[in-house]
Amino acid sequence: MCLKTACLLLTYFAISASSYSVSSHRSKAALNTALKSTTQHFYGYGDPDHVKSTLQNITEEREASTPPASSHPDPVLLEKLSDIRSRLGPPLNLYDQIMSQSPAMALAAEFKRASPSKGQIALSEISCGAQASSYFTAGASIISVLTEPNHFKGSLSDMLSARSETQSLASKLNLPRPCILRKDFITSRHMILEAASHGADTVLLIVAVTPSDVLKELIEYSRELGMEPLVEIHADEELDVALKGGAKVIGVNNRNLHTFKMDMTTTTKFAERVGEDICLCSLSGMSSADDVERYRGDGVRMVLIGESLMRSRSPELAIKSLGLDPRVEREEEGRGGAYNGGLKVVKVCGVCEEEDAVNACREGANMIGVIFAESKRKCSRENAKKVVQSVRKFGERSDREDLRNGITRGIKRPLVVGVFQNEKVSVINEIVQDVGIDVVQLHGDEGEGCIPEISVPCIRVVSVPESDERSVEERGGEILEKVTERPLAYLLDTKVGGREGGTGVTFDHDIVQVVQSGGVPVIVAGGLSEGNVREVARAGCFGVDVSSGVEKEVGKKDDAKIKKFVDEAWRGGEEGMQGI
Ligand SMILES: *[C@@H]1O[C@H](CO)[C@@H](O)[C@H](O)[C@H]1NC(C)=O
Q1: 418 neighbors 432 (Cβ within 8 angstroms)
Q2: Which atom, in ligand 1's list, is nearest to the CA of 54?
Q3: Buried (b) or exposed (e) across 219-237, using 16+ Cβ within 10 A?
Q4: Model confidence over 353-378: pLDDT tens digits?
Q5: Which of 197, 479, 496, 528 is most buried (CB neighbours < 10 A)?
Q6: Cα separation of 265 and 254, whole Å?
Q7: How many CA atoms lie within 13 A of 411 on its CB side?
Q8: What span, in angstroms and rounded, lies between the C-alpha atoms of 542 and 492?
Q9: Residue 414: left if φ>0, alpha if ψ -120 to 50, beta else—which one?
């Protein structure tokens, strides 16, 4: 029986490699057969007890739903292809598109309604064409569209609308249009033809689920249709398979698609192994400007950002905060130099309920303050943990050391800030660890001496010196003199000591400017509301902080006010950067 099966399989594969459709290489049987040379890089290869991963299952499901093997391309698709090419023109070459962005990092922004690891991501009524257009205006040069229907809730018509809407917008704006990528579990020529005939410029091919001979065939077929494919790898041995197949654009998935485990060093490891002629991309996990910056240094030429953009109410701002808008020149930020990077933080403080945290993050706040000090808004540990859990759903975490070094370049994934006042360092560290806090805010007169002992970066609260005869330079200088440990930022509280400060907005920014010129980013707090935050943000502070200004009642936030506040803040920040 064994011999016969092997024989049949061998004959089958011999035929399939050269025929129009390739088929079930991914079945359990194939994983354990003699096709070592083409499938030994498969997860679970040769293991009779292997339980197929989600990736393997989805790919198999996808393969089963494509038309039965046939030696001829579907005439309907060919017709569609010729129609779309005559209407919309030829496809863009992915390699050239990425290289043309250099020295800026090319951004691929992804449209994804849902995913197996995160479930529903976007509202079902969201329009792919509109979302793709906003990615494009924000600076994305590649738009990736998930077209898998069952687990990602995507479709070919999503992709087609991305192509036609971005193309017409680009021609209106007289700009080069973005390149459209079909992201799916492509197993056959049929799916590649399908992609081309629905407006794709390129397709994703996943090495982990593609036998090496088939990969080569699919790469070649893509090129026959004028498309340079993006070839995805994760495991070490997959690079060789991709290179042997002739891949020129190689995307590294930092996530192991079988286990969903994320390892941000994956891309870096491959960067050392590929030559200059390969266009190396990084495909997952980037959620801060730090991540992007590190990859830039590694020679990565394109990053793909998906979920964090889908979750963001303003993809434009999200892209900017990642340092990825190719039209904005990146400013150098030596730690010792003046801070002039503009608004990077919108902090909603005094949050104690999960729902408020989720609303604030969804509206675009990127710091959520939870108070552990005695206060009307003091939060229990139990609630704080719930807040942390819900905030973490907005993007992957990177490690804390990165945060310390790169926060002024912008943060995308929201952080939880724990507010303490005259608390023992040991207690602070214990709570940080237990609750999962990202940043500590020191509100008391504990000074800065304790900062190096606290296990996460710190924000130091200082009060604005009384307005008196002295110049703002002198008063700002007084604050700077006390800087000993370089906290992440100073939170200038204009309300300290019961004084109402926030109304004297002009008075604030002069001091803010002085302190920031001294190299310490400033978060402005006290008396901010939707009515004045735009002006404050426009003046160039690093952050704004609000608590009572967005409350319904003490300790309970008002979603509409949060939305208004956050929108106004980011708008002001953007105007500030444009010099409005
Ligand atoms: C994949 O499907 C098989 C059944 O065909 C199932 O036993 C296995 O648990 C699935 N894998 C995952 C990760 O769900």
Answers
A1: yes
A2: 13
A3: bebbeebebbbbbbbbbee
A4: 999 999 999 888 999 999 999 988 99
A5: 528
A6: 7
A7: 32
A8: 11
A9: beta
**CA-closest candidate to residue 355, choices 529, 121, 557:** 557
CA distances from 183 to 72, 111, 148, 172, 229 (A): 24, 9, 8, 27, 11
Q: Report the nearest atom of ligand 1 relative to the CA of 53.
A: 13
Distance 131 CA to ligand 1 centre (A): 33
Q: Which residues of 334-356 are buried (b: 16+ CB within 10 A; e: fewer)?
A: eeeeebbbbbbbbbbbbbbbbeb
Report the separation in Å between the CA atom of 499 and the middle of ligand 1, taken as the mean of its atom positions. 63
Q: What is the pTM of this model?
A: 0.58
Report the nearest-CA residue for atom 10 of ligand 1: 52
Residue 419 — φ and ψ, nearest 5°?
-100, 125
- Which residue in the block uniquely carries the two structure tokens 């509100």? 443
pLDDT for 503? 40
The CA distance from 21 to 228, in Å, is 20
Find the Cα–Cα–Cα–Cα dihedral 494, 402, 346, 517, rounded to 10°. 50
Annotate 459-475 with DSSP letters as a single string.
EEEEEPPPP-SS-HHHH
Residue 347: strand pairing partners: 367, 545
213 CA from centroid of ligand 1 (Å): 26
Q: How far is the CA of 50 from the centre of ligand 1 (A)?
A: 10
- In terms of DSSP bridges, do strands 522-525 and 119-120 run parallel, antiparallel, or are they unpaired? unpaired
Euclidean distance between CA atoms 298 and 434, whole angstroms: 35
**Token pair recorded at residue 104:** 């800026």
- 437: CA distance to ligand 1 center in Å? 36
At 443, which amino acid appears?
H
Res 398 pLDDT > 70: no
Tokens representing 38 are: 């083409």
State the Cα–Cα distance between residues 87 and 83, nearest whole angstrom.
Answer: 6
Q: Mutate which of 31, 49, 52 to test ligand 1's pocket (most atoms within 8 Å of Cβ)?
A: 52
Residues flanking ligand 1, CB < 6 Å: 51-54, 57
Residue 86 CB partners (closer than 8 Å, separation 6+): none
